[in-house]
Amino acid sequence: MPQKMSPKKIFYLITSFVLLFLMFAVNLSNCNPIPTTDIDDNSIISSSSILSKRGKTYRGEATFYDVGLGACGKQNNNNQRVAAISHGLFDSIPSPGGNPNKNKFCGKKARVSRGKKSVVVTVVDRCGGCNFGDIDLSPSAFDKIAKPAEGRVNVQWRFI
Known about the structure:
Layout: H1 7-29, H2 47-52, E1 58-64, E2 82-86, H3 87-90, E3 109-114, E4 117-127, E5 135-137, H4 139-142, E6 153-159
Parallel strand pairs: 1-5, 2-4
Antiparallel strand pairs: 1-6, 2-5, 3-4, 3-6
């Protein structure tokens, strides 16, 4: 014959289940999976989507910056056609061992276009002040698509 559980044991059992359920629910609410949406709504897209869709077009603003030691760990200069991509895009793929020098975007080529003008650049840095689709160019790369006096221009770009 089964033993009867005391009301106290039943209370503790139910309370334990409720607490476990609440801990599980809170943990799930803290998960932030990367949505796989289009870049035009300024959201982060999945890393596999970024690297597999080389022809995906990003839209944003291009600026130029004084090039030096970039997040990819290499020293570059203003005469090279290099770029920094937005922190949101750069950080969307975790770097092996947390080392940004090994980020999968480092060394990738991209074509930046403005109207009928375009330039091919190599990603060497991370732009902390850029919005998701923006790209920061070396002065020599920016000169190929705009005049420095313009400062900030709308562009389209994609990995090639």
